[in-house]
Amino acid sequence: MAGSDGAVVTVAGIDAGGRPGDPVLAEALAGAGLVVGAARHLAVVPVPDGCPTVVLGPLAPALARLTAAVTAGTPVVVLASGDPGFFGIVRRLRAAGLALRVLPAVSSVAAAFARAGLPWDGAAVVSAHGRDPRPALNACRALPAVAVLTAPGAGAAEIGRGLAGWSRRLVVAEHLGTDRERVTETSPADAAARTWTDPHVVLCLARPDGAMRVDNQPAAAPAGGWALPERAYAHRDSMITKAEVRALVVARLRPRLGRLVWDVGAGSGSVGIECALLGAAVIAVERDPAAIVGANAARHGVDVRLVTGTAPAVLAGLPEPDAVFVGGGGLDVLAAVAARRPERVVVALAALDRVGPAIGLLRTAGYAVEGTQLSAARLADLPGGSIRLAATNPVVVLTGERP
Question: Could you give all domains of the chain from N- to C-terminal order, each with its CATH number?
Answer without folding.
Answer: 9-106 (3.40.1010.10), 109-205 (3.30.950.10), 230-401 (3.40.50.150)
